[in-house]
Amino acid sequence: MTDLTQSTVTQLSKLLAAKEVSAEELAKAYLDKIDAHKELHAYLDVRPEETLKQAKEADKKIAEGTAGPLTGVPIAHKDIFVTKEWPSTAASKMLEGYMSPFDATVVERLKKEGMVCLGKTNCDEFAMGSTTANSAYGKTLNPWDKDAVPGGSSGGSASCVAARTAPIATATDTGGSIRQPAAFCGVTGIKPTYGRPSRWGMIAFASSLDTAGVIAQTAEDCALVLSSIIGFDKRDSTSIELPPEDLTIDLNQDIKGKRIGVPRKWLEKLSPGLKASLEEALKKYQSLGAELVDIDLSKADLGVPVYYIIAPAEASSNLSRYDGVRYGHRAGKYADLLDMIKKSRDEGLGPEPKRRILIGTYVLSHGYYDAYYIKAQKVRRLIAQEFDNAFANKCDIIFAPVSTDAAFSFGDKNDPLSLYLSDLFTVPGSLAGLPSMSLPCGISDKGRPYAFQLIAPRLQESSLLNTAHAYQLVTDWHKKVPAGY
Ligand code: GLN
User: Do 463 and 396 contact (CB within 8 A), yes or no?
Assistant: First the structure.
């Protein structure tokens, strides 16, 4: 039989339904491949016995005829989602070995569909970062080029899908953490509308931005699995009360006449190679009958300063729960309660979460709150309105870059500020809560993937996925596999 691990979720679903492969065989094939590619450090925790247990249950459902389309299909979960059978650490020493008494809603829903968990993927500590270098357990490598960052914070999820050690992985996006790693690893990632997937059981970073999504080979796979993830959850107070939606229904719609908005000024900021590949992608869209219109997103240029006030402000509040009292790391030696809290936080948290707690506490403090936090909230609203205006008057969907170039190398951007600035194209959509995705569209001279971003109006995941799928039907970039994987 051909190498099963090269298959998409859609293909695996068919093979399982036709009983050409069992869930157990499939799980074993992936576990072997994960074992063979430990050099990537994409996984933080793998427990074959738990994976095989889930696979056997899936096989039982298939035999009984109670299986759904995802039953038996393997998936990896970002270590931001809490899981009962695997430790949940958010890649922090603070939560080393932490076993959650419950599954995150996203995990629970996919488990109910019969998906088989392969393990937990590496990320930046508390999802703060763009490279996985902030993981307390060491960085993940990019299978395209070991010197290149895999992107972050969901670098483990992107790397494992690119290396075909998982057909799909969950991920989270607060300011770009699904789109940017998917872009750097040559895979397809989607962040749905804020509030559509539940945040219950997602280890919190910035609650008004944190959004669950998936990284897969294709838009079609994203649509299939995301349909089972989104939907109202009463345990999340910002969950949108909407009935479930099958996001695969519109996948094959004709995109003729669709108006694609292009923020031309953003394209001027790109490396010549990336710019050329984006221009190629735009031509493809034109050849499919889409209409290109120029749009202006100059307010979105303020996204980085706004994001780096709001996200740390929320993080400083969210991370105050790690006090060494209820769970998480507790210092071994301390004088009194206050000393215990101080030492536990000092030992358990890495430099980036500490930096953000400091920034966040500062912008929320008396005297600075109005100048920074309130001002940032106002500009956030202006950015959201700018997108709303573009969608109301000019276009159905926005085509944008994900980053200014292909993946940079480890060590290239060492200071926090240059990393923060590299989020310029992803944070605006996050601040506005819009669904957006990242698709591969080329490969640089150095052999590193190029990608573009699509951004849709709120709740229009179907249109977003349709636009992405139309491109993948006429191109092959999403089918490219890094050598040796
Ligand atoms: N790179 C951004 C940050 O460090 C985004 C992270 C994310 O989306 N989780 O905050």
Answer: yes
pTM above threshold 0.85: yes
Q: Is 177 a catalytic residue?
A: yes
The answer to whether the CB of 150 falls within 8 A of the CB of 141 is yes
Per the annotation, the verdict on 153 as an active-site residue is yes
In the set 22, 92, 100, 177, the catalytic residue is: 177
**Ligand 1 atom with the shortest distance to the CA of 419:** 1
What pLDDT is stored for residue 414 in this prediction? 84
Reduced to 3 states, what is the DSSP secondary structure of residue 442?
strand
Distance CA 284, CA 256 (A): 12
Let me know: does 125 contact 90? Beta carbons within 8 Å.
yes
The active-site residue out of 78, 120, 258, 299 is 78
Residues near ligand 1 with C-beta < 6 Å?
Answer: 127-130, 153, 173-177, 205, 311, 423
Per-residue confidence band for 302, with pLDDT thresholds at 50, 70 and 90: very high
Query: What end-to-end distance do the CA atoms of the chain give, in Å?
Result: 17
**pLDDT tens-digit map of 202-226:** 999 999 999 999 999 999 999 999 9
Ligand 1 pocket: which of 132, 177, 194 to mutate (most atoms within 8 A of CB): 177
Cα torsion through 209, 210, 212, 214, rounded to 10: 80
- What is the CA(180)–ligand 1 centre distance, in A? 9
Q: Which residues contact 170 (CB under 8 A, 6 or more apart)?
A: 75, 76, 77, 78, 81, 106, 107, 110, 157, 212, 213, 214, 215, 229
